[in-house]
Write a structure and sequence with these properties.
CATH architecture of the largest domain: 3-Layer(aba) Sandwich
Strand content: 15-25%
Helix content: 25-40%
Number of helices: 15
Structural class: alpha/beta
CATH superfamily of the largest domain: Type I PLP-dependent aspartate aminotransferase-like (Major domain)
Shape: globular
Largest sheet: 7 strands, mixed
Strand order of the largest sheet: 4-10-9-8-7-5-6
Number of domains: 2
Length: 438
């Protein structure tokens, strides 16, 4: 088995019944029932989320925070109600949730805000984030580009340097190396909760403790954990966490940055303009407190309302039950992949907590060819480097195939996928194991 950690007691989810809540899953692709295994890229939306957005747009559509008429008041109430719902679902308070267009924006917000603090912008308390040449920004080898490139750019602007914590051959974080990489010059430690390639749940508490011991800011990429695990921001011990709505059954164009209040209060704003100011003259401006000081411009109102519906939908099923169900899917997926000749799983760790996601290489067949073969049989997977090129280089690859599940994934979905995958190498005339798949 790929996971041996004990599971919390949870009621069993009926994924077949849940699947009926998702209109898009009722269709066929190339004459075959759709098997959607690409939730790591974007999840499908239940009818409740679609209805929530449509209801707002047809009944209360209006700009928030800037009108005295009835629709504006109702829109503002729904918008801030959505903030309370989503923050509560994630174990935070409303004032700890900054709306963003997604996790990429949230992570760039933090990096650019630190850059502004380095330039002397913000309140006196912002100087705690100022960087000096030689200061260190630490990431892991398993980061999505969205949690790597912003730190590279920040280093280029400030003279700081980016260092990384390696992953072992089984995909787990090398914690011995982490203890030596994180040191007295470390100012930021940015790392993923769950790798979008490996599916392994990383040891957040241990990494956060190392960062805290040297006074470094911790930034968590929670895109692949929020939809699949019970998530309690305050209990995790990190300073900031970014997440994406469209990966947790919600709309596109919405996500968030969760932050400890003292951190959000001290960080200077990144995007400026309307809606985030107190007073403005031709010479200077004053800014609202967090979270509004990070929310310049027109707000994603219908998207936030749709995301709140997604949070309610997941919460109604119970995240303990969601994760327990994903553990069943993960075992079926991993164990099935191990039985397909010529398949090598990236990060095939044993005895670790995982979500229902696995990336793999098929020896002798390019990932894109595998994806097209599966698509012809109604199975949707992801192919490419999944915005994690350094991690693929770690495993000697330029691309892989990724299958990723969600709350609506059934046992039959996995079985159809595995059956189709077993026909890939024979179809392309590949026999034996000749290279990377060994």
């Amino acid at each position: 088995m790929s996971s041996t950690a004990p599971e919390a007691p949870a009621r069993a989810l009926d994924s077949t019944a849940i699947r009926a809540d998702f209109p898009i899953l009722q269709q066929t692709v190339h004459g075959q029932p759709l098997v959607y295994l690409d939730s790591g890229a974007t999840s499908q939306k239940p009818q409740a989320v679609l209805d929530a957005e449509i209801d707002f747009l047809t009944r209360a559509n209006s700009a928030v925070h800037r009108g005295a008429h009835t629709l504006a008041g109702e829109a503002t109430e729904l918008f801030e109600g959505a903030r309370a719902t989503v923050s509560g679902f994630l174990g935070a308070r409303p004032e700890q949730l900054v709306w963003t267009s997604g996790a990429t924006f949230a992570l760039n917000l933090v990096a650019y805000a630190i850059g502004n603090a380095t330039l002397g912008r913000g309140a006196p308390t912002s100087t705690r984030f100022a960087l000096a040449p030689g200061d260190e920004l630490v990431v892991t080898e398993s980061e999505h580009h969205a949690n790597l490139i912003p730190w590279q750019e920040l280093a280029a602007r400030t003279g700081a340097v980016v260092k990384h914590i390696p992953v072992r051959v089984d995909g787990t974080i090398d914690m011995d190396a982490a203890a030596s990489v994180i040191g007295e010059r470390t100012r930021v430690v940015a790392f993923t909760h769950v790798s979008n390639v490996l599916g392994i749940v990383n040891p957040v508490a241990e990494i956060a403790a190392l960062a805290k011991s040297v006074g470094a800011l911790t930034v968590l990429d929670a895109c692949q954990s929020v939809p699949h695990l019970p998530f309690d921001f305050d209990a995790l011990g990190v300073d900031l966490a970014a997440f994406s709505g469209h990966k947790m059954l919600g709309p596109y164009g919405i996500g968030g940055l969760l932050g400890r209040s003292e951190v959000l209060d001290a960080l200077p704003p990144f995007l400026t303009g309307g809606s985030m100011v107190t007073t403005v003259t031709l010479d200077e401006a004053g800014f609202l407190p967090a979270p509004q000081k990070f929310e310049a411009g027109t707000q994603p109102v219908s998207q936030a309302i749709g995301l709140a519906a997604a949070a309610r939908y997941l919460d109604a099923h119970g995240m303990d039950a969601v994760h327990a169900r994903e553990r069943v899917i993960e075992r079926r997926l991993i164990e099935g992949l191990r039985e397909v000749e010529g398949v090598r799983i990236l990060g095939d760790a044993v005895g670790v907590d995982r979500v229902g996601l696995a990336a793999f290489d098929v020896d002798g067949v390019h990932a894109h060819d595998v994806g097209q073969f599966l698509d012809d049989r109604g199975v949707a997977v992801r192919v490419g480097h999944h915005c994690a090129k350094p991690l693929h280089a770690r495993f000697g690859l330029t691309a892989s195939v990724r299958a990723s599940s969600s709350v609506f994934t059934t046992d039959d979905d996995v079985d159809v996928f595995l059956d189709a995958l077993s026909g890939v190498r024979p179809f392309f005339g590949v026999t034996g194991v000749t290279g990377a798949g060994a």
